[in-house]
Amino acid sequence: MINRVLIRVKVVQALYSYVLTRPDRTFEQAKKDLQLSFEKSYELYMYLFKLIIELTDLQDRALDDARNKFMPTAEDLNPNTRFVDNWLVAQLRENEELNVFFNDKLISWQDEIIFKRLTLDKILRSDLYKEYMAAPSTDCATDCEFWKQVVRQIFLNDEDIAEQLENMSLFWSVEDIDTMGQFIIKSIRKFQDGQDNPIMPMYKDDEDRAFGDKLFSRTVQIMDENNILIDSFIKSERWDKNRVALMDRLIMCVAVTELKGFESIPTSVTLNEYIELAKEFSTPNSGQFVNGILHSVVKNLRDRGIIVKA
To answer: Which CATH superfamily is domain 222-303 in?
Structure first.
């Protein structure tokens, strides 16, 4: 659920924050903050499920208000209720695991009424909604497909929604929103297929659960060693090692830790992941720079027998 791609992002971010704030912030505090960031990402997954339910509730109340206005029209009295009667939403309401989490963590959008109205309006004005409501019939597959497309086309592609979510928590970044949105879509597919446990756990397994803490802790422990290795491949005629972007250096430090200490992760996976992180989070030239340094590091580690994996 919290997959390794997101774990790597959060480890790099936690390391960056730790380096900038020490000695005011201890290593143990940084580790606790890293774990909190994972928990908050999982909360976002739950918040998105709750948003689906509350948007449906908002539209249901709007239909009820129309029925009870002073001079209702025939359409007000006999509205198309397909949206509010959606099969998936009924399953979400009844899911015990969701309800326990909502209650324990006080998950609610009740203070975000303007945001909910704006988001509902985006859905109601979309061609996706119009096609769904105009279809001659519906079933659980159609109802699930509708919400999968809402998540994909609206939740994950609207700047206003992204901005609102980022403002709600310091721990919710674009990467969190995209990752949790994709997992919402996978969970909806599980509901549609009738699987017993459609709500995904926080981690896939114990190995993933331990991965982030181990990667962060080990990187801090051997950071000086990794930096010396990295510096040995920064050619002074092209790069001043003292002027290498901090984010580039930290990304490479984490990558080298993973190369050395995680035998089950193929070298190519590690290289690709951290080169992409450099492109995403650092300077325009960072991808090429990190790519060159890390490939030199890999050759050196292989020649010295420190890594022997594929």
So the answer is: NusB-like (1.10.940.10)
